[in-house]
Every structure is written in C-alpha cells, then in structure tokens.
Write a structure and sequence with these properties.
Elements (H helix, E strand, L loop, with lengths): L2 H18 L28 E6 L15 H11 L3 E6 L5 H15 L3 E4 L8 H9 L3 E5 L17 E3 L5 H16 L8
Parallel strand pairs: 1-2, 1-3, 3-4, 4-5
Helix pairs in contact: 2-5, 3-4
Length: about 190
C-alpha cells in the first residue's frame, strides 16, 4: 500500500471515532466568562435581578451622603433604571462571611450582575469564582476584588467603580455600569 492510502485510512478511522463521540452528554456546558461580554451577547433583560452587597457602614470616605443610606440610594437608582435590585448589607460581627453568603445567594437567585463593596476583598475569591462560573458579571464598588491571594488564577471583579466624593456619584456610576452591561456593552469605567 502506498503512504497516501494508509494516511487516508487513518484520517477516515479518526473521523469515524470522533463521530461516535459526539452524542449527548450529561456534563454541563462551559459557561461564558462574564468578562467576555460583548455587544453580540445581547446583555440581559432590563428588569433583571441585580445584586448589591454592601458594608454596614457603607458611606464613601469623606462623602456627603445627605443623610440617605447607601443601600437606599442603590435600591432607588437601580429601580428607577428598571432593574430589580436585591440589596444586602453585611452585619458588623462577621461582615466577610455575611458578604460571601450574600454573593452565593444572589447567584442562586439568578442575579445577572453583582455590585460588591467588600469588607475583606480577599475572602470573597471563592464566591466571586462561583459568580463567574454562573456567568454573573461582578463589579467591585471601591476596593478591587480580591486584592490579594488569587495566585494568578484570575479571580477578580470584571469591572470596578471607584468611590468618589459623594455616595450619589458612586451609585450613579455603578448604575451606569449595570445599564451598559444590560445593553450588552462593555462599560466605561475610566
């Protein structure tokens, strides 16, 4: 036999073997990475659930909050933008554990985006990974998520909204990020 015939037989045998492996599988599909969001993804429904995880003392340092709690500002602004906000405020006893639990619960409830102001950013790496695995876009409010201990595994927030001189401005910027994500656009966080 010539080398061409042998090569053709090997190619045909490999193709037949692969064809037999293409049946249905019980394995879950690989989720789309939340950081891969593009305009072709179409974003998500405007009335989608948006999770917000804050600290008990969540006033932006040096801010002029005007007496309105940050949680209320997030709830009001996200509702006005057409979203269904679920705002969770961590207790003061074990804020990091409360926040990790809140992130996991919001992912289970079907949140499309999470805005997180972390008590201990490094302690949230596992919860952030769960969110990413579910295709949830995570936006850090204030400090980056996590700040250390990632071991180069890439577990961090997809976007970050830095604090500003007022809570109202921070919430407005965070709401604008969620609106961009909803439209399927990469937000301008510059």
């Amino acid at each position: 036999m010539s080398a061409r015939i042998v090569a053709a037989a090997v190619v045909v045998a490999a193709a037949l073997a692969l064809t037999g492996c293409q049946g249905t599988t019980s394995a879950a599909p690989t989720p789309v990475q939340s950081s891969d969001l593009t305009s072709s993804d179409g974003g998500f429904d405007q009335n989608a659930l948006v999770g917000v995880v804050l600290l008990q003392t969540a006033a932006t340092p040096g801010s002029t909050s005007g007496g309105v709690p940050l949680a209320t500002r997030f709830r009001d602004d996200l509702t006005a933008a057409g979203f269904r906000p679920d705002v969770r405020v961590a207790g003061t006893d074990d804020a990091a554990t409360d926040q990790e639990r809140a992130v996991r619960q919001l992912v289970q409830r079907g949140a499309k985006a999470l805005l997180v102001q972390a008590a201990d950013p490094a302690s949230l790496s596992g919860a952030v990974q769960v969110a990413h695995d579910a295709g949830v876009v995570v936006v850090a409010v204030g400090d980056p998520l996590p700040t250390s201990g990632t071991g180069g595994d890439g577990v961090s927030a997809d976007y970050r909204v830095q604090g500003s001189d007022s809570d109202a401005a921070t919430v407005a910027r965070a709401t604008a990020v969620v609106e961009s994500l909803q439209r399927g656009e990469k937000p301008d966080v510059g």
